Amino acid sequence: MTAHLDVTLALIAALPFIGAVFPGLMIRAGRDACAMSAGWATLSAFILLMTLAPAVWHGETYSFRINWMPMLGLNANFRLDGLGFLFATMILGIGMLIILYARFYLSRSDPMGQFYVYLMLFQGAMLGIVLSDNVLMMVVFWELTSLSSFLLIGYWKHTPDGRQGARMALAVTGMGGLALIAGMLLLGEAAGSYDLTDILQRREAIQASPLYLPMLILILLGAFTKSAQFPFHFWLPHAMAAPTPVSAYLHSATMVKAGLFLMARLWPVLSGTDAWFYIVSTTGLVTMVLGAAIAIFKDDLKALLAYSTVSHLGLITMLLGFGTTAAATAAGFHIINHTIFKAALFMTAGIVDHETHTRSIKRLGGLRHLMPITATLAIITAASMAGIPYFNGFLSKEMMLESAAHTTWDGNGLLVPVLATIGALLSAAYSFRYIGHVFLGPVRDDYPHKPHDPGFGLWAAPAFLSVLVLAIGIFPQAVVGSFLQIVADAITGQHLHMHPLKVWHGLTPALLMSAIATVGGLAVLLAFTPLDRLWESLPKPDAKRIFDRMVETSHDICGTIANHMHDGQLTRYVAIFATGTVAAGIIAFVTGDYLPGTRDMLPVDLIDVVGTILVIAATASIVVFHRSRLLVLVLIGINGLVVSLIFVRFSAPDLAMTQVTVEVVTLILLLLALHFLPKITPRETSWARRGRDGAIAIAAGLAVGGLAFALMTRDFSTISGYYWENAKPGGGGTNVVNVILVDFRGYDTFGEIIVLGIAALVIFALAEALMNGRASRRLANWEVTQRYSRDRHPLMMVVATRVMMPIVLMVGVYIFLRGHNQPGGGFIAGLVVAIALLMQYMASGFAWAQDRMKFAYHTFIGWGVMIAGLTGIGAWFVGRPFLTSAYGYVHIEPIEEFELATAMAFDLGVFLAVVGAVMLALYCLSRIARRTGETVNVTPMDFDPSHPTETTQENG
Amino acid sequence: MELLAQIVISALLVIAGIFGFLGSYGLLKLDDTMRRLHAPTKATTIGVGGVLIAAMIYFAVFQDKISLHELLITVFLFITAPITANFVAKAHLHRDVKPSELPPTGGKYGWAAYDSVSPDKQPIDTD
User: Fold this and answer.
1) Contact indicator for A415, A461 with CB cutoff of 8 Å
2) What pTM did the predictor assign?
3) Is A740 found in the same domain as A679?
């Protein structure tokens, strides 16, 4: 086997994702354009895939490697061999047919752009699974299919069935995905590599590993949940709430086949052991029989097909479980056949639903006369599902029965063949029912809607598939013979010597079993009415109710735990946290060695003493007066000011400036918030409780103080020396603090402004929720306890703030520009500018000022983060890592030479995010104030000696 | 010249210190909010102003550079101090004084804190 390196592979995997962008945009150009955009992307990927076909046909593999996180073993490695080729062909081929079919299936009221976006995402995820060479990468795509199928199944989100079905599918397949992650990690551990190419070579090592059994179970959990194997089969019928194109795609070619793909892919390394045989083949066998039995008695067309899918998936699983090459070949063949006839069957069911407006078999019958084309297609494909000779399903079913006939289960040679025959019999029965009860029989006169054949667009796709059914059924060797050869070779990892496919093999046990199944199936159909009554009378567990109860129980348990741990009492959280930390520190101190510090104490002078006394006095006053909230706010202000003076004293002007500005902004916002809260903190706890809290607080304070003292009295090396030396040569700025912020630790800052933005948006969301809830009514009934001044916007204040605004803005710009070399920077400048704006809002009222603000503050945050991000990305274009900064010096006459650094653009992002966050918080508080019925002033001040600018009066 | 500058700077600092102290002392000593309001104004004007002028002279004479920061600080102080006083007085009116206790304004309009002027009467007559 030779391997080729080819970038086409990565392109094929990427195309559906790229194609997912367009339908959402193209829907504005019309529904045809939308469908076409999805179709073209799929077609391009399909054509690219076909260019690789000749080499794959010769048994060669393609691969392409992109190192992503090599340390973790997670790389974007792609690989294409026969098996991957089969699945990729199915995904893209059926995908195109589905895109065509969905274009005509979806009604005008369905958002088609969304549909195709989801569909393309799903297609990309599926394609990723089958083309991945790295098993971790495969898991990533695996989870993506769970997520995107959630969106597809829940596409009709206005129906409860759709939402619940989607949630159930996500819960079951998502949990399977978690098991799969664990399984894949174990597999990589056992094989010593996460690349399939390597893993597939190490069968002995893996099977000898003690991890084999847990790994096998975990991986199979993933595969079984995805492929709806018993007992996880229940999600699949509920996923039928999706639009029919989705069902046709997910349940024929893609989603549920992912589990089968996984088992086939890992077949060479995992199969052949007893554990594999008993787990996989037994599960498959049970699923096959059970699914088929349920399917017969389903009256909903799609439910019948859903359970038939479950049954056929069981069949393929069983074949993979047998562990023989003949069975694996049969599995590969049945994957092809099932995809073809099941996709077509779903499409015909969709057509029937579309035309008659019902899916209930009990209300249908005789459609053969009204919809001849649909009936023909349905009969051909259902006959294939039943396993009638000259239809493709017959061939793989024969192979299955042949394999089953030679299988002994725990020494019993009869069990598997008999059950397999029963499964085939039931399978024939529901196929016949699908034909007989829907299309045959007399024409009725009570259809919910008078049916007739749909337009060509809707039946083109199933017609094409029906042709394939017949072509494979009649000339198997010519149509798929060599293809099956490469698929089987890829599944088994050997070069098999295969007999040519033939319809007739002579009188074999398989033919006999097949005959029994067909005749039995007809018999079941004839005796359907009594059997149906019998079935109805049997007690059956309702999977949905069980599932719902399990979800509810686990929700309750988690809720109980969470509510006890998180009872919303902040003091409790802080107490637990502080006690734990102090205890950990004490344990560390007692068990470790402690040496007193070696550094000399600094001399204390008068200023230090005054500062210390101020801080202590202010803090003590806070403790004493803490029930009077306004007073506390003032005292906190004192603390903040003294702290900033301490920063000045110890030469940290940046910190001092930040502290002062933050202090101002915080005070203003807190004052506003306090307006809506009680002015006094009520006494809620007992003396004992307060004593305990006080003890904890003192202990924590002493511990922190002691720790700081211990640290500051000794010499230790930190990274600050490095920053100090490299700020100018590396970052191009002499202000080390700023260079650290925008350059050395730019990533941190970038993360922080994002957090800041998110926090502001959360404030906005909370205020928004407040506006619509019970709190809103309380605010509306707000009783003004204190008299408002008639002169809320005094002339002096208004004029002064107007005068100061340009000065403050100038200071902001100045601080911003010099930030790289002298104290300042984007963060401080942002706060200064925010204060300049805050003053206007305070002076003239929020509404008045807001009217003059032309930009929404949300966009400030967005622009800030974007500018910072784009600056970082800019480094890529010169081949440097994210956020590498560059700087240079510019000299323009007559200005002095000055420095320009990319870090400045980054700082601009910080600046905008800060301004946006502060102002958005103000905006939210002001909205609350408006809700209380505060009047909105029209003029900038209450007593206006100039001409009013507006004459309209509005009320809040 | 240097001696003269030293004397001036020292004098300014001492005066500033006295006024700063007076301002603080007055705040404690005076017993009525309206009277108290006057005391800190001494500290913020001559008290801080003296220090700022001293600083400017110091930089000009001994450091050989013209420092204008102080002017900016002065401007800010002159703008903000009256507003603070104005707000404190208004708060005092609302908290401690009943509207009936207030003397008549003697003009066309009442006390700003209590009598609103409807928008259609705006702009107010300033004559």
Assistant:
1) no
2) 0.69
3) no
